[in-house]
């Protein structure tokens, strides 16, 4: 598989310069960073959550863990993690567990962990387990322009 069609279309329509970075098959974001020779703090991952108000894609550096309670307090929501079957229905052109952290491509609200804001470039899943997308840090912020910028990971 290559870059997910929905993601590719969104990147192209946004006029974002990007490159793809192939890597050996891996499903763990921290292992992907290692095998792709990418600094883990520059590999963004997406974690899908849901509550009665709808879905939220939390975007954070791969070595960090989302603190759902903190996110709920900051957004005054009651978010919970979404199961793999439900994720697959929202990302039909992606492999299971290879969620691109670009919510706009999939019409999802996004919360962006502020620790990603100062990076010169960002890598993220292309929609499969063998390829990453690399964009400049400023371009990444453009892709996530409507995201809530919060501190919710440790």
> How many structural domains?
1
**Helix content estimate:** 10-25%
According to CATH, what is the class?
Alpha Beta
Q: What is the end-to-end distance?
A: 32 Å
Indicate the structural class: alpha/beta
InterPro entries: YbaK/aa-tRNA-synt-asso_dom_sf, YbaK/aa-tRNA-synth-assoc-dom
GO molecular function: aminoacyl-tRNA deacylase activity; aminoacyl-tRNA ligase activity
Keywords: Aminoacyl-tRNA synthetase, Ligase
Protein name: YbaK/prolyl-tRNA synthetase associated region
Set out the fold topology:
Layout: H1 5-13, E1 19-22, H2 29-35, E2 43-51, E3 54-61, H3 68-75, E4 80-81, H4 84-90, E5 109-113, E6 121-125, E7 131-136, H5 137-143, E8 148-150
In short:
Keywords: Aminoacyl-tRNA synthetase, Ligase. This protein has 154 residues and is of the alpha/beta class.
Outline the structure in words.
Keywords: Aminoacyl-tRNA synthetase, Ligase. This is YbaK/prolyl-tRNA synthetase associated region. InterPro entries: YbaK/aa-tRNA-synt-asso_dom_sf, YbaK/aa-tRNA-synth-assoc-dom. It contains 5 helices and 8 strands; from the N terminus they run αβαββαβαβββαβ. By secondary structure, the chain is an alpha/beta fold. Strands 1, 2, 3, 4, 5, 6, 7 and 8 form an 8-stranded mixed beta sheet that branches. The longest helix has 9 residues, at 5-13.
Task: List the defining traits of the structure above.
YbaK/aa-tRNA-synt-asso_dom_sf, YbaK/prolyl-tRNA synthetase associated region, 8 strands, YbaK protein, ligase, single chain, alpha/beta, 154 residues
């Amino acid at each position: 598989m290559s870059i997910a069609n929905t993601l590719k279309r969104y990147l192209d329509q946004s006029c974002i310069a990007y490159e793809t970075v192939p890597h050996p098959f891996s499903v763990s974001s921290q292992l992907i960073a290692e095998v792709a020779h990418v600094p883990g703090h520059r590999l963004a991952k997406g974690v899908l959550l849901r509550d009665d108000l709808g879905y939220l894609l939390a975007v954070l550096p791969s070595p960090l863990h989302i603190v759902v309670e903190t996110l709920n307090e900051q957004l005054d929501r009651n978010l919970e993690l979404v199961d793999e079957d439900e994720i697959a229905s929202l990302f039909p052109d992606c492999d299971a567990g290879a969620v691109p952290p670009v919510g706009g491509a999939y019409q999802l609200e996004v919360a962006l962990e502020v620790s990603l804001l100062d990076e010169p470039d960002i890598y993220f899943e292309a929609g499969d387990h063998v390829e990453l997308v690399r964009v400049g840090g400023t371009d990444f912020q453009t892709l996530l322009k409507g995201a809530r910028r919060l501190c919710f990971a440790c």
